Amino acid sequence: GIQVEQSPPDLILQEGANSTLRCNFSDSVNNLQWFHQNPWGQLINLFYIPSGTKQNGRLSATTVATERYSLLYISSSQTTDSGVYFCAVGGSEKLVFGKGMKLTVNP
Amino acid sequence: SAVISQKPSRDICQRGTSLTIQCQVDSQVTMMFWYRQQPGQSLTLIATANQGSEATYESGFVIDKFPISRPNLTFSTLTVSNMSPEDSSIYLCSVDQGGRTRAFFGQGTRLTVV
Predict the structure, then answer these.
(1) Residues ≥6 apart with Cβ < 8 Å to B35
(2) B13 touches chain A (CB under 8 A)
(3) Binding-site residues on chain A for chain B (CB distance < 8 A)
(4) Which of A43, A45, A90 sits opposite B92 (nearest CB)?
């Protein structure tokens, strides 16, 4: 099945710093999404981005489908950005999740 | 976006017992998905629940252990049967809007088996 790799696995930042999260996948997909899981376990959908670039406030994402990777940018990070970020990809109906990246933003 | 209510939000259960988790969506959806997230791990799909048909289980998950009901287009239940401490996980239900667009999740059920 499709493989999803996220990097880095962990990241610690000071408030106000920027970061880039990477997601590599092993096969062509028509569905790629980024999620944030807060410390209480709630999963929030950040982007549906099978290709191209999208921006939502301080967050933006770019997927280069032909090269099988996606990037999530977080600018001017805040403590509320802490949590685990997941990339999930799919070719048909179901999503396959990466292992996640734990982000800690310190005040 | 879909609003998903999942109950209970957490529970502590004795080994050998069963727990039924409910998932209610505020709109009709074709497919509902049940995931397990073991401590410190990623999400693993347990099964896909379609209304009016048997759920489709992923490799490693069986109906006897995780029976699923889908009585209508807005509701589903997942039962974790004959629980052991290894079943301690967060269980999440999810829907998408159809056409492989954005997926939305309930708040999860944090299960501890003692």
Answers:
(1) B43, B44, B45, B46, B91, B92, B93, B94
(2) no
(3) 30-31, 33, 35, 40-43, 45, 48, 86, 88, 90, 92-95, 97-100
(4) A43
Q: Which amino acid is at B49?
A: A
pLDDT in tens, B14-24: 999 999 999 99
Tokens of B111: 């299960």
Task: List the beta bridge partners of residue A106.
Answer: A14
B43 touches chain A (CB under 8 A): yes
Contact call for residues B54 and B6 (beta carbons, < 8 A) = no
DSSP string, B49-72: EETTSPPEEPTT--TTTS-EEEEE
Kindly report the CA angle at A25 between A21 and A27, in degrees rounded to 5? 160
User: What span, in angstroms and rounded, lies between the C-alpha atoms of B77 and A37?
Assistant: 23
pLDDT tens digits for range B57-107 = 999 999 999 999 999 999 999 999 999 999 999 999 999 765 567 899 999
SS3 B99: coil
Q: Which residues of B touch A1 (CB under 8 A)?
A: none
